[in-house]
TrEMBL record:
<dbReference type="InterPro" id="IPR000100">
    <property type="entry name" value="RNase_P"/>
</dbReference>
<comment type="similarity">
    <text>Belongs to the RnpA family.</text>
</comment>
<dbReference type="GO" id="GO:0030677">
    <property type="term" value="C:ribonuclease P complex"/>
</dbReference>
<keyword id="KW-0378">Hydrolase</keyword>
<dbReference type="GO" id="GO:0004526">
    <property type="term" value="F:ribonuclease P activity"/>
</dbReference>
<dbReference type="GO" id="GO:0001682">
    <property type="term" value="P:tRNA 5'-leader removal"/>
</dbReference>
<dbReference type="GO" id="GO:0042781">
    <property type="term" value="F:3'-tRNA processing endoribonuclease activity"/>
</dbReference>
<keyword id="KW-0819">tRNA processing</keyword>
<dbReference type="InterPro" id="IPR020568">
    <property type="entry name" value="Ribosomal_Su5_D2-typ_SF"/>
</dbReference>
<keyword id="KW-0694">RNA-binding</keyword>
<protein>
    <recommendedName>
        <fullName>Ribonuclease P protein component</fullName>
        <ecNumber>3.1.26.5</ecNumber>
    </recommendedName>
</protein>
<comment type="subunit">
    <text>Consists of a catalytic RNA component (M1 or rnpB) and a protein subunit.</text>
</comment>
<comment type="function">
    <text>RNaseP catalyzes the removal of the 5'-leader sequence from pre-tRNA to produce the mature 5'-terminus. It can also cleave other RNA substrates such as 4.5S RNA. The protein component plays an auxiliary but essential role in vivo by binding to the 5'-leader sequence and broadening the substrate specificity of the ribozyme.</text>
</comment>
<dbReference type="InterPro" id="IPR020539">
    <property type="entry name" value="RNase_P_CS"/>
</dbReference>
<dbReference type="InterPro" id="IPR014721">
    <property type="entry name" value="Ribsml_uS5_D2-typ_fold_subgr"/>
</dbReference>
<keyword id="KW-0255">Endonuclease</keyword>
<keyword id="KW-0540">Nuclease</keyword>
Length: 119
């Protein structure tokens, strides 16, 4: 993902938390905020130390970034997304992570097209 598609600064995170909506499942919490005049979506990631050591946390973040990359044609482009990983996500492989994200995004109604999650 490009640098412009990342949310890094605390005030940007706080704005999505305050003004946005959220949806959750057992593995992830998804916050999303619709933004006017934005051409591409932005993603912020948060994985607590409670989830696992640095290797586990970085693997989860890689999986989430790759899932967003693969799901980008189906996502609203005019929004910011923040994904908070919960402890059960530590045991997931990439396909389980992607399917869990599809599930929580479907609940949040942020997917524009039907996603085939058969893998």
């Amino acid at each position: 993902m490009k640098k412009e598609q990342r949310i890094k600064k605390n005030p940007e995170f706080q704005q999505v938390f305050r003004e946005g909506s959220s949806m959750a499942n057992r593995q992830f919490v998804l916050y999303y905020l619709k933004r006017e005049n934005q051409t591409a979506f932005r993603v912020g990631l948060s994985v607590s130390k409670k989830v696992g050591n640095a290797v586990v946390r970085n693997r989860i973040k890689r999986y989430i970034r790759q899932a967003f990359l693969e799901l980008s044609p189906h996502l609203r482009q005019d929004a910011d997304y923040i994904v908070i990983a919960r402890k059960p996500a530590a045991d997931f492989n990439f396909h389980q992570t992607k399917n869990s994200l599809i599930h929580v995004m479907g609940k949040a109604k942020v997917l524009q097209k039907k996603v085939n999650s058969d893998k």
